[in-house]
Amino acid sequence: MRRPDRHALYEVAVQGPDWDLDFLERIFRRRNQRAPRTFREDFCSTAALATAWAMRHPENHAWAVDLDPEPLAWARKFRLPYVREVAKRVTLVKSDVRVPQKPLVDVACALNFSWWIFHQRRDLVAYLKAARASLKPGGVLVMNMFGGTRGERKLVERTRKATSNTPDGQMVPGFTYVWEQARMDAVTRNLLAYIHFEFKDGTRMPRAFVYDWRMWTLPDLKDCALEAGFSDFEVWSEGWDKHYKTHDGVLYKRTKLDNDDCWIAYCALHR
């Protein structure tokens, strides 16, 4: 059997579209008292969220934006043909996310820390201005980020992934997802990180993905969001189950957040 490519492995290892989309809908409904129907996935890669959004309701439409043609081509070949009529409500867009997009949408997102490719404040503000201009009144942009004492040092984490399927129905045998943080610079806050994949036969796919990021802080993002014209900025993170000593899978709005071992925050930027 031919080994799945890196995009298929990434989706199994990292993405959870339904969990993310549940939160996006929840955030929009809190302020608008209606269901959102239009969605844009910035830095979309293989458009997993955009396609899942369109599949949720027959009136949902999604736009998936990325500058890299490779994952867009992957989505066009391996994902859209297998969702049949739904594909008509998913539009793949090759574009710089710093360019305002049309049509305007209810909800947009930049997840999986993708926006950390911006190392300069001017580039982040330019993106946020474009994202805001591409939202309908009452719209929301959701971005995520991580931090904490463990999140800012060298580390290697291995996570075993069970057998799964690709969007076109091909089997992905179980594998090990390896997240490596190779270098963190305290002066520039630049983080160099890699994703590797390891297989049962002892072979590896080293550096399947390479990340050269700036680790932005929550106050950094808030300041940039307000400068870009957003009216409000909220921080949400998972609760903690003391009995099982793990996160409980529910996001709660925060005004304070302990800088513990490692945290992941979802930030809601309201137009």
Tally of contiguous helical segments: 6
What is the helix fraction of residues, given as a range? 10-25%
Radius of gyration: 18 Å
> Given this structure, which CATH class of the largest domain is correct?
Alpha Beta
Based on helices, strands and strand pairing, what is the structural class? Answer: alpha/beta
Architecture (CATH level 2) name of the largest domain: 3-Layer(aba) Sandwich
Percent strand: 35-45%
- Principal-axes geometry comes out as globular
Strand order in the largest sheet: 3-2-1-4-5-14-12-13
CATH superfamily of the largest domain: Vaccinia Virus protein VP39
- SSE ordering: HHEHEHEEHEEEEEEEHEEE
Largest sheet data? 8 strands, mixed
Overall residue-averaged pLDDT value: 93
Q: Into how many domains do the coordinates divide?
A: 2
- Poorly predicted runs: none
The CATH topology of the largest domain: Rossmann fold
Q: Could you give the count of β-strands?
A: 14
Summarize the structure.
With 271 residues, the protein is of the alpha/beta class.
Describe it.
The chain is globular. The chain is built from 6 helices and 14 strands. Helix 2 packs across helix 3 (about 50-55). It has 2 domains: about 5-145 and about 215-270, Vaccinia Virus protein VP39 (Rossmann fold); about 150-215. The strands form 3 sheets. An 8-stranded mixed sheet has the order 3-2-1-4-5-14-12-13. It is an alpha/beta fold and about 270 residues long.
